[in-house]
Amino acid sequence: MNDATNGRNVYILDSVIVPDAWDSEVEAEILSGFSKVSLLHLRSEEEFVPYAPSADAIIMWHHLNLTRLSISRLSRARVIVRNGVGVDNVDLEAAYEFGIPVCNVPDYGTEEVADHTLAMLLSLWRRLDALKESVRSGAWDWRVAEPVRRIRGTTFGIVGCGRIGTAAARRAKVFGFEVAFYDPYVPSGYEKAIAVKRVNTLEELLERSDVVSLHVPLTDGTFHLIGLDQLQRMKPSAFLVNTSRGPVIDEKALVVVAQSGRLAGVALDVVETEPNPPRELLELPNFMITPHAAFYSVEGLREIRQKSASIVLDALAGRELRNVVSAK
Ligand code: NAD
After folding, report:
1. Is the pLDDT of residue 92 over 50?
2. How far is the CA of 162 from the centre of ligand 1 (A)?
3. For residue 226, what are the domain limits?
4. Is pLDDT above 50 for 2?
């Protein structure tokens, strides 16, 4: 028993794959005097099972799944905090059943993901890869980029206009896009508040957009939201960007549609089978995949760690929790 920490344990899971998070100094500083903080370099949930009974709180990144297997063994945990927005890797039903609140940190990377969305899109739109290669090979030929369209007047379509969708809308406007969104859940008038067009169906958004950018959470309702029918409704000259979650797109359908040359470009920061994107996708022209990196900045990473540790502190101190996604 450690007196200063009352024998409490906060475990940080899955940190092995997150850059700059290979220590627990940020969390330990905030939780000093309340709990010991341990970083567990785990590659599977099974490896966490022996630690589960001694956990008073868990902070977890996005690669590991926390299912009933370990949640049922969390006999004294007061909270599970997801270092991120999406909680699709936590079995919320099991956490609810065992009375463990689940919180997220929804706002640390809003700007980064929106920046990444526009960065990937503009790189494909302006054909930077081909232009870079032209210089590298000694050709010095701008025509390798042909044909590039002017952005002004084209439509940037957003599916899911929450925090990141809205931040992407603001950026897209600055570049000259007409912005439209489909999101049945934001209140009426939101489109007026942010001065963009709202459409009432996903089909209409897909058919009118020159860029379709996905910003929905992964839920039962958004799994394979973009399938064969939806991809075929998009303009053949359109770009598709996904920085939300891989399974929002049916990747098998995407391979079929992209191989037929129907899309001008596809940019994915997330894929269904992370960290192994399908080879067929990697080989397509004007295709870009980044390794679930959109959230990342030095400042954002520090912010998320401070915020998740603060939620744990509130839980251990018996205070009201912020950013509760599920609780009894
Ligand atoms: P948010 O909750 O603020 O916004 C999500 C929006 O999607 C909400 O407005 C909601 O009404 C809408 N929505 C839900 N279901 C929908 C549907 N069927 N059709 C249309 N709209 C729907 O979330 P956010 O902070 O903007 O984050 C969006 C997603 O981005 C997250 O859920 C997460 O999966 C992803 N994300 C990815 C990274 C990354 O590194 N690539 C980082 C952070 C977040």
Report:
1. yes
2. 6
3. 110-289
4. no
